[in-house]
Write a structure and sequence with these properties.
By secondary structure, the protein is α/β, with parallel strands linked by helices. It has two domains: about 5-160, Rossmann fold, CATH 3.40.50.720; about 165-285, N-(1-d-carboxylethyl)-l-norvaline Dehydrogenase, domain 2. The chain has helices at about 10-25, 40-45, 50-55, 70-75, 95-105, 135-145, 160-190, 195-210, 215-220, 230-250, 255-270, 280-285; strands at about 5-10, 30, 45-50, 60-65, 85-90, 110-115, 130-135, 150-155. An eight-stranded mixed β-sheet has the order 3-2-1-4-5-6-7-8, sandwiched between helices. The longest helix has 29 residues, at about 160-190. It is elongated and about 65 Å long. The protein binds ligand FVH. Ligand FVH binds near residues 32, 67 and 75. The site of ligand FVH has 21 residues, from helix 1 and helix 4.
Length: about 290
C-alpha cells in the first residue's frame, strides 16, 4: 500500500498535486479553507477533511501548498505535528522557510522546504521538478512518495536552500520574460506581427543566447578561459542604443535601464575587457 498523504490547499497547484498523488495510488486526504473546492477530486477518490486537525491526523506526509508563508503559519498554528513530515511547497523566501522549519520542528514535525518548478499542468509530467531542503531523514523516507508529483531534487539540509534555488530560477525566468516582453513592445511599436517576430526571430535568438550560460557558469567556477568574445566595454557602449530606441519608439525603458547601469559600472571598474560572467560578482557584493 502506498503512503497516505494529505494535501493542504486546493488552489490550482494544490489540486494538481492531489491529482498526481491519486493517480499514483496514494490514499489522499485533502483540505481547503473554502470547502468544496475542486469537486473533481472526490470522484478520483480523495477524502475530504473537514478540519486541519483531521487532515493532518490522516497521513504521515503532509504537503502544504497555500498562497504565502503567513498562510501556512496561520493554517498549521496550534496543530500537533508530532511524527509528521511537513513538505511545504508554498512559495517563500529562504528566511521564511528557515523560520517555518524551526517552528514546525518545535511542533513535532520533520520539515522539508520546497520549491515547485512547474505550472499546474506540468505536475506529474516529465519536465516538472521540485526542490527540497531540510531534514535528510524525512527526504529519504518520502522521496519515492514525493516523486508522484514531480522529480524530487534535494539540495541540502538547510531548510532555506530549496527556496533559494526556486527564487533564483524564478528570478532568471522573470528577467527572460521581461526582456522578451520589451522586445515584443518594440516590435508592436511598428505593427510587426507578434507571432512571426516570436516564432521566426525572438525564440531562436533567445534559445541560441541561452546556449552561452554553461560557458558563463564555467568562467565563474574556474575563471575565464580566454579573451572575451563580446567584451563588456563594447556592450556598455552599444547598450545606449537599446535605451534610446525604446524612448524613440515610445516604449518604457524601465526594464532595460538597470542592465545598462550595471554594464557601465563593470566597464568603469576595470572589467571592460571581460565577459558577462564578470557581472555576477558585481551584483553579489559590488566588487
Ligand atoms: N500556479 C502556479 O503556476 C505556481 C507554480 C509554482 C508554485 N506556485 C506556488 O504554489 C502556491 C499555491 O499556488 P496556487 O496556484 O495553488 O494558488 P491559488 O490557486 O491562488 O490558491 C491559493 C490557495 O491558498 C489558499 N489560501 C489563501 N489564503 C488563505 C488563508 N488565509 N488561509 C488558508 N488558505 C488560504 C486558497 O484557499 P481558498 O481561497 O480556496 O480558500 C487556495 O487553496 C503559491 O505559493 C504559489 O506561489 C504556483
Amino acid at each position: 500500500m502506498k503512503t497516505p498523504v494529505t494535501v493542504l490547499g486546493l488552489g490550482a497547484m494544490g489540486t494538481a498535486l492531489a491529482r498526481a498523488f491519486l493517480a499514483a495510488g496514494h490514499p489522499t486526504t485533502v483540505w481547503n479553507r473554502t470547502p468544496g473546492r475542486s469537486p473533481e477530486l472526490d470522484s478520483l477518490g480523495a477524502t475530504r477533511a473537514a478540519t486541519t486537525t483531521e487532515a493532518v491526523a490522516a497521513s504521515p506526509l503532509v504537503v502544504v501548498c497555500l498562497l504565502v508563508d503567513a498562510t501556512v503559519r496561520s493554517t498549521l498554528e496550534g496543530l500537533d505535528l508530532t511524527g509528521k513530515t511537513v513538505a511545504n511547497l508554498t512559495n517563500g523566501t529562504p528566511a521564511q522557510d528557515r523560520d517555518t522549519a524551526a517552528w514546525a520542528e518545535e511542533a513535532g514535525a520533520e520539515y522539508l522546504g520546497g520549491g515547485i518548478m512547474a505550472v499546474p499542468a506540468m505536475i506529474g509530467g516529465p519536465a516538472a521538478f521540485i526542490f527540497y531542503s531540510g531534514s535528510p531523514v524525512a527526504f529519504e523516507r518520502h522521496e519515492a512518495d514525493l516523486a508522484a508529483m514531480a522529480r524530487p531534487e534535494y539540495v541540502g539540509s538547510d531548510p532555506g536552500l530549496a527556496a533559494l534555488h526556486d527564487i533564483a530560477l524564478l528570478s532568471g525566468m522573470y528577467g527572460m520574460f521581461g526582456g522578451a516582453q520589451h522586445a515584443l513592445a518594440l516590435a508592436a511599436s511598428e505593427k510587426v506581427s507578434a507571432v512571426r517576430f516570436t516564432e521566426d526571430f525572438l525564440l531562436p535568438w533567445l534559445t541560441a543566447m541561452l546556449g552561452s550560460l554553461p560557458r558563463i557558469a564555467k568562467d565563474l567556477d574556474e575563471g575565464p578561459e580566454g579573451p572575451a568574445g563580446s567584451n563588456l566595454a563594447m556592450q556598455a557602449a552599444a547598450y545606449d542604443n537599446l535605451v534610446d530606441t525604446a524612448v524613440d519608439q515610445g516604449v518604457d525603458p524601465a526594464l532595460l535601464v538597470p542592465m545598462g547601469d550595471l554594464l557601465r559600472k563593470a566597464a568603469a571598474t576595470g572589467h571592460g575587457d571581460e565577459d558577462l560572467a564578470a557581472l555576477v560578482p558585481l551584483l553579489r557584493d559590488g566588487a
